[in-house]
Fold these 3 entries.
Entry 1:
Amino acid sequence: MAIKKEHLPGRVQVKGTMLHAHLDWLSKKLQQPASALLPHLSPDCQKAIVPGILATDWIKLAHLVAIDHAIVKLSGRQPEDVFRELGHHSAVANLSGVYKSFVGDEPHRFFEGQARLHGRFQDFGRSVYEKVGERSGRIRLDGYVEYSPVFCLSAVGYYQGALETMHVPGPIGVLETQCTCAGDPVCSFELRW
């Protein structure tokens, strides 16, 4: 497998709802997550924590990734596991909460809708969903001018959590088969349920 690289000049952004979900995950592990995070963050990143941002605000992808790295330090766990759990928690928290109306019981329709709404949650790249079989599909993300393995692992967890939220029969499988961070032209995720 190719070595995965990160490219985060700090020009692209994601919605604050992603940060809120990640902080919520940490709050279930620590009593004072904000004060614990601050010493591990640059002054610019600290502004996303204190005074904080709204779920509808934009945050630099580079800041979200830096905060996720700080969350890993505080957790004391394996980074890959934590990044996937952050994405999973984001799906479960958001899709059973504020974005509940987006979730149905038909995964193909859900992921097609997610691809159309991609620009509402990040201001870079494109998402395309392809139905592969009755209980399988493929998500292709391209045009990512900034990228990080952290974001890709979080995506794996998100897609897993989204499928669980839909109560699909399973077994659920999510595998990233191509990755921009490894030099591939796209990130491609194979989903099965």
Entry 2:
Amino acid sequence: MTIDKIEALDKRRCKVFLEGDFAFVLYNGEIRRYHLEEGEELPESVYEEILREIVCRRARERALFLLKSTGRTELELRRKLKSSWYPQCAIDEAVSFLKRYHYIDDAEYARNYVELYGKKKSRAELMQTLRQKGIDPQLVKDLWEELEPDTAGQIQRILIKRGFNADRATLKEKQKTISYLLRRGFSWEEIRKAGENLSDMCGEE
């Protein structure tokens, strides 16, 4: 395969393009070590060695470093590695390695997230956040039903935080509060079940 272009990424690294496509990023010293030059042929054996010994190994190390500070879903990790200029084959290999040793587990991540934020967020908010992280919405629904978060308690805590008092609130304030709860992802039924005052408030709406 032909080395079409070697393009500086920063002062220490270069992007290498093979047969018209981006292949990988190497440090300048590695470029010199393998005698890579534009227009020259790269033997298949050398290409595979670079991927195996440098690029894939580095992708695994980068992934492990990213997981040190916080848990991540597979999708989040893939996005991070892609933004760091790792080729798809290295990303796939790194993810496979992490799954094999249970460093990433989307189901476990979702369970921990629901347990942690189930008392603070509505189901709709949880589903939206986890969907953006690449979690299957059906898994979130199942976890929500399994863990049975205290939705009424969530709503009551939100109202206390907002300083809302149904006995003293005007109709406009009640309507505004209902709209806020609905935007947070709580259903009419959940609002009604949260307490007698809230039921009256919904009735006035």
Entry 3:
Amino acid sequence: MSNRHKRIVATLDTGTSADWNADHEINYMLYISEELLRLGDPLATIWDTAETIDGAVPVWVLVGAAGSEHATVELNTGADTGHISSMRYMLDGAVSNVTSPNDLPVLTMAVQIDTVDVTGKTVEFGFVPSATTPFTANQAGAYFRVNNNTLYAVTGTGAAETATSLGAYNEYDHYRIEFMSTLVNFYVGSVATPVAIHTTHRPVVALTAKVSVISVNDTDSTIRSDAIGLTRLRLQ
């Protein structure tokens, strides 16, 4: 299948049939933008929270000083070690994966890491299989992790992983994970070039968007997000 297009000509210039030849193919690598976290939507209709373990179920909250309140989704563990607050994106209201690495998906997220302990793995957000338990070792996916108060870019196959240290993180920042045909690019903030490029342990399983926080050392841990979007650059 192809697109027809016309040549732009000067006034009084004569066009020809060749100007309308179908001489280029449709580019199927088109963006398919999906807003996964929409202000005002009931959270439970598009996000599943069943992987929350003893922590608070993620909910919409208002944060900020009076007169400057800001609506965001909050994940809070409570102050007991091992408590998890987690949410995963659903497909048409049912727990499921929503994309394949072959879709060349791109996940963009705004995340506030409000309070976490300075030791241990405390935060994960990005592309993870729906059925995978949060904070599983070597889990498949492409995501950001906070470990020992350091931000990491991670790709995993379920059997092994590649983790790149990105150093200290900002309390609030924008994050992007971009699948390419043979690698995964990670972006943080307004940086136009990837902060990490992973060519190893690129997952091949179906994925969904997931955000999780776990309490370590009885720290009442809290993270928030007010914007999550999915874009897919299709290969086929």
